[in-house]
Write a structure and sequence with these properties.
Helices cover 58% and strands 14% of the residues. With 573 residues, the chain is α+β, with helices and mostly antiparallel strands. The chain folds into 4 domains: 229 residues, Up-down Bundle (Rhopdopsin 7-helix transmembrane proteins), CATH 1.20.1070.10; 93 residues, 2-Layer Sandwich (Beta-Lactamase); 47 residues; 147 residues, Histidine kinase-like ATPase, C-terminal domain (Heat Shock Protein 90).
């Protein structure tokens, strides 16, 4: 009989050890999700169950009265600790801790702490378990009937929180909530059946703890508790359009998605050296040498066609800061580049058409009427010479010579202006300076260029600089044609986020309102059109006999403010 008992106890002990190992495996697996809500308390619950089973197993070996009593009190203590841990677990994973009264958790913690202290002090106070003596056999003390109901009440409240959470959820989240509820019910079912000796001499704790572990494993691997987000990330990683690749510190490919395998210039797979694909694409080697996070463009052939990729490199580090490697993300922007090139080509075509229209109006104003004038003048000169009025014929000839010279200067002015339009390679200031020098040499003006602010070419967009240059050209051309000026100047200064360009002369001036109403002259209208295209404000100030002042105020889109108050004055004498 004793041998049978010993074999039965040994089998139960082995079974308990296996259950402890299984529960501890669940705890280790759960630890990887410790950043998720409730995961740390779930790990604590599995560990507490392992200690609880160990105390039960030691107590069942019959090692001695004192040791058996200590194991029994440890069992009570761990059972109460398990109550609190499951309470905290359900409180956190359900999100009820955000809405629960502030006194709830501290009250439960205080009750559990007091119960634990009573269990630990019971060997001396005998308030929970009264040992056998001359007065009678061992029996439960009075406080035992207070701690046990308290533990069951807390556990019932925790179950209520879990049920409430499950009812508020739908679909997958409800199934996860139900899967978390089952382990707790299994534990207390085993506790209850052990208390009423439903299994006879066999202790059912290990069996029901194993069932709770099975329910927990089901929650993990069937309903993906804690791992839904990583699983979703994995699905996105596999099916994302952009290529993603992880390279470790030693230069080996750790992970890549399907898209990355399809866009690489050479066959590659996880575990190969990164250098094996670099030989076919040197730009990858440059990306590998980048430190920190950067975004660059790279291009190589894919299926015989050149593709352009936006390559982003990001260092991969552990939470402790230890470097693990680099993450490469490649986005195919070939179509975007082609579409951008088409848009640029269309914009250039539209710009060419607009310039042709403006050039046609300028020719109509000036050189388009020259041939009719020449024909009429030569006919008049011929008639005067036939009439013998050579003096008048000579006077008309001199007028004709003056007009031809004027138009010749105008043609040279137009050619020079077309050449000066290319401000991209030379810069706005250099282009303006060349225009002013040309007028000084061909018109004999006194010219000055004043720069009264800190200047960088990046202050203005290229389109803005081009239109500003054309407005300056039109202003100088009008001065030459109509102003009869001896002096002219161009001034650039800055006021806050606005850059002002002023063209001024000391000529005869004109009535601005009358000039705007006159038909056949498109100069002022074209200048206003150009100003509107770049969001600038154009103001013309002029009075008869007092010269003209044209002000163009341009918004500065680039936030360059360093040394904005610096003053530099350059005079072209």
């Amino acid at each position: 009989m004793s041998s049978s008992f010993d074999n039965s106890a040994l089998a139960q002990l082995c079974f308990t050890v296996c259950v402890i190992a299984a529960l501890e495996g669940i705890a280790v697996y759960t630890w990887q999700f410790r950043a998720e809500r409730g995961a740390r308390w779930h790990v604590a619950a599995q560990t507490c169950k392992c200690l609880w089973l160990a105390a039960i197993a030691l107590g069942s070996l019959g090692l001695g009265g004192v040791l058996d009593a200590s194991c029994e009190r440890a069992t009570w203590f761990l059972a109460m600790g398990s109550v609190y841990i499951w309470f905290r677990f359900f409180l956190e994973i359900s999100g009820y801790d955000r809405r629960a009264p502030r006194w709830l958790e501290p009250s439960v913690r205080a009750g559990v702490l007091i119960s634990g202290l009573l269990y630990l002090s019971d060997p001396w106070l005998h308030l929970i378990l009264v040992p056998a003596n001359a007065a009678g056999p061992a029996h439960f003390g009075r406080l035992c009937y207070l701690t046990y109901p308290f533990g069951y009440a807390v556990n019932t409240f925790a179950v209520g929180i879990n049920v409430r959470w499950a009812l508020r959820c739908r679909g997958l989240r409800r199934r996860q909530a139900a899967a978390f509820l089952v382990p707790n019910l299994m534990i207390w079912a085993g506790q209850f059946l052990a208390a009423i000796h439903w299994f006879g001499s066999y202790d059912p704790h290990a069996l029901f703890f194993l069932l709770s572990g099975v329910a927990t494993a089901w929650a993990f691997f069937r309903w993906r508790a804690y791992s839904v987000l990583p699983l979703a990330q994995e699905a996105m990683l596999r099916n994302m359009i952009d290529g993603l690749m992880v390279v470790d510190e030693d230069g080996y490919i750790v992970r890549m998605n399907y898209a990355m395998q399809s866009i690489l210039p050479a066959p590659a797979k996880e575990g190969l050296s990164f250098d094996s694909i670099v030989s076919l694409c040197p730009e990858l080697a440059q990306l590998r040498s980048i430190s920190g996070s950067q975004v660059r463009e790279a291009q190589w052939k894919v299926a015989g066609k050149m593709h352009v990729f936006q390559a982003q490199t990001t260092p991969l580090c552990a939470t402790t800061g230890f470097p693990l490697g680099q993450v490469f993300c490649f986005k195919d922007i070939t179509q975007e580049k082609e579409q951008q090139a088409r848009i640029i080509a269309q914009e250039k075509a539209i710009a060419v058409l607009e310039e042709r229209d403006r050039l046609g109006r300028a020719l109509h104003d000036g050189h388009g009427q020259l041939w009719s004038y020449l024909s009429m003048q030569t006919y008049t000169i011929e008639k005067k010479m036939e009439q013998g009025n050579n003096g008048r014929a000579l006077e008309l000839m001199r007028q004709l010579q003056k007009v031809v010279l004027e138009k010749h200067v105008g043609v040279r002015e137009m050619i020079n202006a077309l050449y000066a339009d290319n401000t991209a390679s030379r810069g706005l200031l250099i282009a303006i300076e060349e225009q002013l020098l040309w007028y000084k040499e061909n018109c004999g003006w006194q010219i000055s260029l004043e720069l009264l602010c800190f200047w960088q070419e990046e202050l203005l967009a290229q389109q803005t600089k081009t239109q500003l240059m054309r407005i300056v050209q039109e202003s100088l051309s009008n001065i030459r044609k109509y102003a009869q000026a001896e002096r002219a100047s161009v001034t650039i200064h800055r006021q806050g986020d606005w850059l002002s360009l002023i063209v001024k002369d000391d000529g005869c001036g004109f009535d601005v309102d009358c000039a705007c109403k006159m038909s056949g002259h498109h100069g002022l209208r074209m200048m206003r059109e150009r100003a509107n295209e770049i969001g600038a404000k154009l103001r013309v100030e002029s009075k008869t006999g007092k010269g003209t002042r044209i002000v163009i105020a341009v918004p500065i889109t680039d936030a360059i403010s360093a040394a904005a108050n610096a003053v530099a004055v350059e005079t072209i004498s």
